[in-house]
Each structure stands twice: as C-alpha cells, then as structure tokens.
Amino acid sequence: MDMEDWEQRHTEAFYNAKEALPYLDGMFVAYNSNIDAIRHLTEEDVTKLVGFFDEAEIQERVAVYPREIAEPMDFLARLLISMREGKAGEVPAYTEETHKWLKEHLGFDYARMGGQAGIISNLLAQLGLKKIVTYIPWLSEEQAEYFVNTGNILHPKVENGKVVLKAPAEAFNPGFGSKVNWIFEYSKDLNVTCAGGNFKVPRDNRLIISSRPKWIRLDMDRLVYEQLDSIFPVDGAMLSGYQMIKEEYEDGSTYKDYVEHSVEVIKKLKSLNPELRIHVELTSIQNRLIRKTLLTDIVAGNVHSLGLDTVEVANALNVLGYEELSYSVIRKGENGIMSLYQGAVQLMKDLRLERVHVHSLGFYICILAKGHPLTLKEQRDALLFSSVLAAAKALKGDIENFAEAEEGLRVPVSAKGLEDLENFKLYCTGRKLCSPDEFEYGYIYGPDHDAILIPTKVVDKPIATVGIGDTISAGAFAAMLARMKQIRSGK
Ligand code: 8BR
What we know:
This protein has 19 helices and 18 strands. By secondary structure, the chain is α/β, with parallel strands linked by helices.
C-alpha cells in the first residue's frame, strides 16, 4: 500500500464529506451522557489523601481490594493499587458520598462532557449538522451546561402533555441530580509513601470512578415515546449507553423490561421513517448477561450498523460462543488482524447487520453486507473522513468547528497501520477475497459480504484519547448517510 495514495485519498474524502454533510436533515442521538471531572494527581495530593486516614486501615482495605466505592477509603485503596501497578482501573460508585467527599477534600482540575451520546452530540453539532436531537433520560441542569452552544442541539421536553424540542439548557429536569465520573490521572515515577512502605509509580495511567446513581434508568419517557414523530425529520439514529442496564432493580424491574422498551423505541423510529438507519456504538460491558442480551436482543435484526474497537470485537465474540476466535483477536500476534476480520464478518452475519465498523490504532475495517447502499469508494470516503476527525481530536482534544477538523489532514497516515494491513494482503489475495490491485484500494469482495480496509492517521503524541472511538464511529456514520442523501437529491 502506498502512503502517498492514502494521504491523497484522505484529503479528497474529507472535502467530499464536507460537501455532503449539509444534505442531512438531522441525527437522533441517545442515551448516555455524564460529566467527566478530571484531576491530575501530584505527590502532595497523594500524601494529603493518605493523611486523612489511618495507615494500618488503608493497608487492610488495599488487601480487601474493594470492587465498588462505597466510601472514601475504598477510593484511596483502589488508587494505591492502580498506582502501584501503573494499571488503569474503573470502579463503580453507587452512592454520592465519595463524590461529595472528593469535591470537598480534593476538587478537580477541569470537567468536560462524557458519555458516548454526549460526546457524539457535541461532535456532530460542531461539525455543523442542521439538527441533532439528543435524548438523555437523566438530563440535569448541570449536565445540560456541557452541551455545546451551537444552536443545533435540541432535546425533547414535555410541556402540558405535548413534546417540544428545546435547547438542552431549557429541556433539563430540575429534579435530577448529575452523573459525575472522576478521572484521576497520575504520572510515571511519582513517589508514594504509605504505612511505612514506599513505591514508585511504574507508568502513566488513570483510575476512573464511574458514578452509577440508583435512579438512572436507560429508558424513554412514555410521552416522548408516544410522540416520537416530533423529533423528525432525521436521517439516522446513533444509540449507545446500553451498558447502564442492570440485571435487577430495587423496584423489582429487571433488564428484560428495559431491553423490551429499547427495542420498542428502535421499532418505532423505523416505522416513522423506513429509510432511517440506526447505529449502535458499543463499549466494554463487564456483565456477560447484559453484553449478550444487548447483542442478541437489541442489536440483532433491529439495527443496521455497529461501531466498536478490537477488544469489544473479542468480547462480543466471546459471549456469542466464538471463544477460540475471541482469544485469537485478543492475543493479536501474527493472526490478529485475520481473526479480527473473520470476527467482524461473523458479527455482521450473526447479528444480521448491514455494516460493522471496527476501529483500531492505525487502521479501520468495515464489513458491509451485500446490497449496502453505496459504492465501495463512497464507503471508503466515509471511513477516511472519520480518520481525519480522529486525528484532529487526538491533536486538539476537541473539534470546535469544521476548520479544526481540517487540521487533522496535517497528521500523517500511520506507517505501522500500513504495515499491519500489508501483512494481511496475502491472506486476502490467497483466499481470492480481492486481487492485489483491489487490495491497494482497500476493497474486498467476499462471497457473502464486501469490506473496506484503510490505514488511518495517527497522532504521535495525542493530547487525549478519550472519545476518539465515538468520534470515529459518528463521523463515518454521518458521512455515509450524508452521501446517501446527496445521491438521492441527484448530486
Ligand atoms: P476506543 O476508545 O473505543 O477504544 O477507541 C479509541 C480509538 O481511538 C482507537 O481505536 C484508535 O483508532 C483511536 N486512536 C487512539 Br486510542 N489514539 C490515537 C491517536 N493518537 N491518533 C489517532 N487515533 C487514535
């Protein structure tokens, strides 16, 4: 694969998408958003935190290895464990106690929009889409402040029994609290002294405390559901946040209730506009039952498109009964990319999808069912556009407008990504999935599917990597829909 060709194709695809996006009427985005509170920890911070507790008790708590944050001591124990090993951690908190304690005793450096639906809404708004209708079942006043003020994000609000679309700042429910996730970042070589012991942090990493307030429900207000026609016209829906569904709730309801409602929403969206395409953005789901149910009951046969990273491909395959393939994806190694490809094809088939977009560092793979709506060149353009967005996001942390997105074009295509794909060439040509020439274009013609493989732009020293996966999926999905609309209008 030739680097120069791919640079050129990125540029062309970016401007093609820029021309096509204004053809979109709008996008519906639901369900999850939260506030990310970020705090970079110094040595003094850690000493101060340790000083709040009895050191022998800290030691005991570290040995217990708390799996949830019920009180501040649990937080400190998990922080010390994460720092000692330099290993990322994510621990749930079901009560607000630790949140309040952290606000009083430590505070955060800055806060930003978190959660897939929140990140996707802001991105599409900043790219200038005509209309984004966002639905967050737990939209609070504080959360509403984190939506960008571009005027094109609207949220359903019930007024006198009637659903109207308003800016998030006018659509929140005053009775709701906020879901705040704390992200504690720390650097390599930081010295930690606790209970007479001493260690040096082996690498940069972070501990996340994800807030799971009991009142959170992945559900749609009944009136909003009944008057769902009020969100139209929209061309697509991007749905995420299903990981919030719990097996059981204190009020006796179970995951089955929420799964059923979620499917009703999808069916109603499709009945209101049969042309509408629906994308689900996956993230890691620890609970295997919920992960499997999401795939087999919500995604399969109901939605068109799935976006996920390589670890999520492995996790999905694992609950669907493809353990060997799943391990082979995780192990990476020589067969990693082949297994990833086979795995993505399997997901397309088992879940009856039109499109599976897998993003990895340096390349993306998109599997397409035969009969998908665009040419492979057009599908490739949509992916290349999202690669530019990912580069802009890694470069700047946030893409405030189209001009900032354009800066992603300056980032070079990853040599490592090209090399990984090159290693895959023999597999593809050997199995007659494509000729060597077709491979150079990134096109694959399988017996029961087509596929696109592209090397992508990767920023050497990214400012941040949070939200890049969501940016990639949203950018590619929006660009694909926009091209479909453009064609329909005769351009
Ligand atoms: P997830 O958060 O869903 O894992 O997605 C992260 C994605 O961000 C990766 O799949 C990769 O494509 C992209 N990415 C990362 Br991580 N670092 C990047 C970088 N420095 N430049 C461009 N893309 C990056």
